[in-house]
Amino acid sequence: MNSNLTSSSSLLTASNEDLRSTLLDLIVKYAYREGDFVLSSGARSSYYINCKEVTLRAEGALIIGRLILNALPSTTDAVAGLTLGADPIVSAVSVVSALSDRPIPALIIRKKAKGHGTQAYIEGPSLPKSAEVVVLEDVVTTGKSALQAVERLQAAGYKVLQIISLVDRNQGGRELYQSQRLKFQALFTIEELQGYATST
Q: Could you say which EC number(s) this protein's record lists (predicted)?
């Protein structure tokens, strides 16, 4: 980790550049692994990224919350994501937003409707039908997971502004979102992670 960012107070005041540098270090150190892996899509890969190793660390959550909050459009009414990978990310952004006097609620999208009660797909505060939502994701590969969240939100009457992920594997996700006329940005590309991994 960046030696200048070892305390919560420094993480609360650090620049975006320092936060990004520290997050890159955390992801490569704890989340990035090389080997022989089978992805959720069924494809094989020579590397795997488990961002929960970072998003569920206190300092990782704080950094991610700050970076993504700074990237949100000013009209954002809520952040949302498909369970499970996005759960700690949307929660981190929501908590940091409250600390920044810009409270933004978090929504969690179920993969299957709840089997009891309201049988809802979306968990979280009820919002006006016209609410503008940003979908968050940890790692984008084909893009289908975040797109599922987008479809659930749109079916509920919400307007999805864009998708923001921690890492883009550059394996079709960006193109899928473009085909659906969805804005997309990632904090890091796989090339940035691999370049940093080989230089350290």
A: 2.4.2.10
Residue 160 labeled ligand binder: no
CA–CA–CA angle 85, 90, 93 (5° rounding): 135
- The annotation status of 90 as a binding-site residue, yes or no, is no
Q: pTM above the 0.85 mark?
A: yes
Q: CA 57 → CA 17, 44, 62, 143, distances in Å?
A: 20, 28, 9, 25
User: What is the topology classification, in CATH, of domain 51-188?
Assistant: Rossmann fold (3.40.50)
Cα–Cα–Cα angle for 192, 9, 51, nearest 5°? 35
Report the distance separating Cα 131 and Cα 121, nearest Å. Answer: 17
Annotated ligand binding at 126? The verdict is no
CA terminus-to-terminus distance, the chain? 12
CA-CA-CA-CA torsion sign (174, 59, 70, 111): positive
Nearest to 60 by CA among 114, 119, 102, 19: 19
Domain boundaries, the chain: 51-188
